[in-house]
UniProtKB/TrEMBL annotation, chains A, B:
<dbReference type="InterPro" id="IPR027417">
    <property type="entry name" value="P-loop_NTPase"/>
</dbReference>
<dbReference type="InterPro" id="IPR005129">
    <property type="entry name" value="GTPase_ArgK"/>
</dbReference>
<dbReference type="GO" id="GO:0003924">
    <property type="term" value="F:GTPase activity"/>
</dbReference>
<keyword id="KW-0378">Hydrolase</keyword>
<protein>
    <submittedName>
        <fullName>LAO/AO transport system kinase</fullName>
        <ecNumber>2.7.-.-</ecNumber>
    </submittedName>
</protein>
<keyword id="KW-0808">Transferase</keyword>
<keyword id="KW-0418">Kinase</keyword>
<keyword id="KW-0547">Nucleotide-binding</keyword>
<keyword id="KW-0342">GTP-binding</keyword>
<dbReference type="Pfam" id="PF03308">
    <property type="entry name" value="MeaB"/>
</dbReference>
<comment type="similarity">
    <text>Belongs to the SIMIBI class G3E GTPase family. ArgK/MeaB subfamily.</text>
</comment>
<dbReference type="GO" id="GO:0005525">
    <property type="term" value="F:GTP binding"/>
</dbReference>
<dbReference type="GO" id="GO:0016301">
    <property type="term" value="F:kinase activity"/>
</dbReference>
<keyword id="KW-0143">Chaperone</keyword>
<dbReference type="InterPro" id="IPR052040">
    <property type="entry name" value="GTPase/Isobutyryl-CoA_mutase"/>
</dbReference>
Amino acid sequence: METSSPAARRDPLPTEVSELVAQARQGRPRAVARLISLVENGSPLLREVTAELCAARPSRARVIGLTGSPGVGKSTSTGMLVQAFRKLGRRVGVLAVDPSSPFTGGALLGDRVRMQDHATDPEVFIRSMASRGHLGGLSWATPQALRVLDAAGCEVVLVETVGVGQAEVDIASLADTTVVLLAPGMGDGVQAAKAGILEVADVFVVNKADRDGAQAVVRELRNMTAQIEGPWRPPIVTTVASRGEGAEDVVAALDAHLTYLEESGELGRRRRVRARDEIESIAVAALRTRFAHLHGDRRLDALAERVVAGGLDPYTAADELMDAAG
Amino acid sequence: METSSPAARRDPLPTEVSELVAQARQGRPRAVARLISLVENGSPLLREVTAELCAARPSRARVIGLTGSPGVGKSTSTGMLVQAFRKLGRRVGVLAVDPSSPFTGGALLGDRVRMQDHATDPEVFIRSMASRGHLGGLSWATPQALRVLDAAGCEVVLVETVGVGQAEVDIASLADTTVVLLAPGMGDGVQAAKAGILEVADVFVVNKADRDGAQAVVRELRNMTAQIEGPWRPPIVTTVASRGEGAEDVVAALDAHLTYLEESGELGRRRRVRARDEIESIAVAALRTRFAHLHGDRRLDALAERVVAGGLDPYTAADELMDAAG
């Protein structure tokens, strides 16, 4: 009881980044939480934290993205998968990336009831992250949060996000394996979702498979995937996540995809693309800052004014901006 | 009958950009369509087209964005608004920005049945645009397509897009007025949508107001908007777009918002921000290209490889990339 007494729990966290990272590597939840907060808030320590996390060894965690329209049962499915991976003895991390409201300043938590089952399991790390619109979102904080969970020894990290359009593409670029969830009875949701999902899905899960229309969704997906020519055709798994049905089938599909990734060399390729994207976006962000520092915002404002007034086009304006930057 | 004979309709389009723009300014649909295709396909003429469009005069078209989850009735509502603005004698443009499937290469058209009513009205220009994932999307083609419709004399341009998360933010940054559509019975769609929509909505429309639960959605929105402190509190309008009910109320709300924008100076401010964003993103795209040209992709590949292997963090890698760029 001593180690979990209120006094012990309130031990001050180290302020040194290297010490925090060392504690995270021991799997201490408070250090993990603190590090994720640091990267999420764009702390001035972000860079130091990242360097410390990258110093030791390559990433080992397997990153699984879960995406789908609102209402398909993403959180319930994530909970089901956490349970399934725990049964296999694996340490699991969950990042739930939610749209954030600048109005409340916080992440909107969906139905996390099922997640609470794992709240006391020391081998499960669950974190909701706010996605902060334009410049933030998944792009900069999530890779570092993944590194924190990896450092904490998570063998599997599930990244859950509301997926329509751009978010799906973003999550696919972060994950080794992307699961697209669908459910029957979503209005024209399935149809509207169709366009983006073939691009990103490694595995399809049709949840709420006990409901009318589930088989129609499966058939529709089968027709779509039948046209895919390539080394990997996304399997279609049915689940009733609220009752835990189909968990093993999903895990089997995920394992099959991982085997494919490893044997084909695609795993390394995806991770290199991910690193490229990350480096490039950091460099571009630095360049933007350099723009702003060199000229203040006034030059850009003046150019924008002239474009709005008519007579100057934005391409010529961009040239002028860059010429001024030397 | 002579001017609409097949032979006359097949008159070759001019190949000169200036001539095409001149024809678009006369409201000729084929020239308008051709110019939008040029900008959408990222034609080498993109820059020339944009310069020609910007040469003459400031933009006059009022840009109204419509966004909402799949199934709320966006296309039907857009059709209803087209009709309402036509009744007022205004020339209307519609840009429907749809998620695109790289699989089929084309834009997914939703229910455009109601739009067909306007297919022969020479005062209505309707165009579906594909949003091409990451680098494309709304960002570069849409502002130029708006300029084409503006040149063609459209007083109102409706931009319709599937809105969840990022797309909502994008459309809000393009539009003078953003309409967020909701409907009852969307599962937890409304709740999930909540986070992003307060940020972007200038007007809320609760469509399918004849269905159970519509009043609950209105109440929920009323509670949310009640907390907004600022010069503009988004009104909440109910419609049954499939029967054209509520069209006048939406137009009245849009007009009230336009008046607010003009009187507060916010209209000019929004348009300057829009121009700033556009100039900046063109400049950053040019910088990215410069990166690639200077070093090929090999340097970045090598850095990515080292990040994946462990020991190099992405911030240091970005520094190395930029140092190499001089």
